[in-house]
Design a protein that fits this description.
The longest helix has about 35 residues. By secondary structure, the protein is mainly alpha-helical. It has twelve helices and no strands. It comes from Bombyx mori (Silk moth).
């Protein structure tokens, strides 16, 4: 499992390396889905009504009008964002679960505290990467206006100063904290079950001896657990994710006015949630859910499996 293990031989630096590698792999693979997902989430109701396009048709439209490179708009910032984000998530979770494991807290409270370790990891990450996330989102919408990290940061700063970099941070905290907490909890519940099934052993033995399994077993178990983790965590917190995206472009002013008018924006979390409900009821709060779930599952699978396999490789050195 991910998290503190009493007999684990890895050092903190090795786990940092594993998290960094996981972040790099995850972003490179999921970037195209992120671009399509973002554009679908931010379309105004009028544009969606006119287009009547599903996300796979939107993908074809992006490719036809902008070329293959459009799917990697904002990739440099996204890559830095992903590496910092996953490194922070895994590291904070490993350190905090260790603190819980060695504490004198009664065992009945430890499962809840371990879940809160995941929430802490998600919240810490949200605060850390918020400026990069705002720049990345705007680069996906207008590459030329926000070209490069430095120029992108300068353009964001022009709108509302330093506060521009933290637009949507309250929604980000409400979404990312619980999402990461649920994600780790689901992964750590499902993975040992899959390993136990494959090895016909009791669950407790699988927990303590996970690093003795073949990499193929770790890969399969992590893939299944990662898929379940991504589906559950993103589904539960999705309305906050949608609100976060729309708040992150609240001060966005595109040089291309038609593009700017097509976007859904809001300035507060309550405003976002109310408008999403008015837009199309409960369905409005889950706009773009389908492609987001696909992306969340792939992200979770790649991040967990690459992290686990990297840890496995380092243990063999």
């Amino acid at each position: 499992m991910v998290g503190y293990q009493e007999n684990d031989t890895l050092t903190s630096n090795q786990k940092l390396i594993s998290g960094c590698v996981s972040g790099f792999m995850t972003r490179f693979i999921t970037q195209p889905l992120d671009v399509v997902k973002l554009r679908e989430q931010l379309k105004s109701p009028a544009v969606r009504a006119a287009d009547q396009k599903e996300w796979f048709k939107a993908t074809r439209k992006i490719f036809k009008n902008e070329g293959i490179t459009a799917f990697w708009q904002g990739h440099n910032v996204g890559q830095i964002h992903s590496m910092i984000s996953l490194t922070c998530q895994f590291f904070v979770y490993e350190v905090s679960t260790k603190a819980v494991a060695v504490s004198n807290v009664h065992n009945r409270y430890k499962p809840f505290l371990v879940f809160m370790c995941g929430v802490l990891a998600g919240g810490s990450t949200a605060l850390l990467v918020s400026p990069l996330e705002v720049i990345r989102v705007r680069q996906m919408l207008n590459k030329s206006q926000y070209k490069g990290i430095i120029n992108g940061a300068r353009e964001v700063y022009k709108t509302r100063g330093i506060l521009s970099f933290y637009e949507g941070v309250n929604a980000s905290l409400l979404q990312m904290g619980p999402s990461v907490g649920i994600g780790f909890a689901v992964f750590n519940f499902v993975q040992p079950l899959v390993l136990a099934r494959m090895h016909n052993c009791d669950r407790g033995h699988c927990k303590s001896g996970r690093h003795h399994y073949n990499p193929e077993h770790v890969l399969l178990a992590s893939t299944i657990a990662g898929s379940a983790s991504g589906f559950v965590s993103k589904s539960v917190t999705y309305p906050f994710d949608l609100a976060k995206r729309r708040m992150q472009i609240s001060s966005y002013r595109s040089v291309n006015q038609p593009v700017s008018k097509e976007l859904m924006k809001c300035t507060s979390l309550s405003d976002c949630l109310v408008n999403m409900y008015r837009e199309d009821g409960i369905r409005g709060m889950f706009r773009g859910w389908k492609i987001t779930i696909y992306k969340a599952q792939i992200t979770s699978i790649v991040s967990f499996t690459s992290y686990e396999l990297m840890c496995y490789s380092l243990r063999q050195i």
